[in-house]
Amino acid sequence: MNIPFFRYPHVFNQQREEILSAMLKVADRGAFILQEELVEFEAKIAAFAGAKYAVGMANGTDTLFLALRSAGIGPGDEVILASHTYIATAAAVHFNGATPVLVDCGPDHLIDPCAIEAAITPRTKVIMPTQLNGRTANMTAIQALAEKHHLVVIEDAAQALGSKFKGRSAGTFGYAGSISLYPAKVLGCFGDGGLLFTNDDTAYASLRQLRDHGRNDAGRVVRWGMNSRLDNLQAAILIEKLKIYPQEIQRRRSLASLYHEGLKDVKELSLPPPPDEAGDHFDVYQNYELQADNRDALRAYLAANGVRTIIQWAGTPVHQFTDLELGKFELPATDRLFQRCFLLPMNTSLSDSEVGYICETIRNFYGRK
After folding, report:
1. Claim: this prediction has a pTM higher than 0.90
2. SS3 call for 283
3. Among residues 12, 55, 221, 332, which one has the fewest Cβ atoms lying within 10 Å of its Cβ?
């Protein structure tokens, strides 16, 4: 078989006619910026997540930058985040003039609450957990730390739309929660896009101004802002994709179950938890990130047999980007993880037989029948 890591044409082809129709309705009206489709999408996605508000923005990096700006974060402030995240999480902190403080991850590959507490100083203002791979961190522990130390929680939930912890959706726990709408995400548009959830009336008003040149609802500039509006054309596409989103999540969970059943007895692997209908976590499996003995040789073997895999962040957690002069962080768990971790294909273009082939190929590599 030839199994790419991701089939980008699938993002369009699975709803081709519906999406073309939605795009034409926007184009025929010339309704491209801040029009009714954006308002409709924001309302529907907020309802889906159980958030009071959603604010569509140009991409998932701007969302983090503007959430921090809205919360008043700036020079002299520290923001705690996991090193196992995309560089955009730390960049949003940096470009607000604040300092990213990088901490270790736990066995679930998400930010370790114990590492957060050890990193808190008088300058700490924000905890920014990354809800990674479609799983939500232990927000009970994180919110308790935030309350104890009077800190703001801003979630980088770029990979976690629809994920839940104790029944509550990723992105809805703190001051604001960021979602990426990049094409390869579980809910992806046809280019860059992002949104912020918030339950705070003041934050909502602030974020709407910050994304639109600092203008209020009357069109008057009342603060410095940016041009970071989610295109109306993308909003129209996302409305259509949201209609099948629950089925997309369920399919990913089914694929994760197939991976788990096919690989659970391979002792050289450490797999993500399988779908759990009754526990604290409801995972949407944006990615299927596992750990493997002899990882690089396994990936080469998979590639030779037609299966493409990747390592997140090109194999480099944020604390290892030495050119950025972030300072020295001792993060042994993250360092160990990045010697072993990689991603198998995980998207709804995959067939059951393709997952079976991937599992069989991995089992062959380790000499399993």
Report:
1. yes
2. coil
3. 332
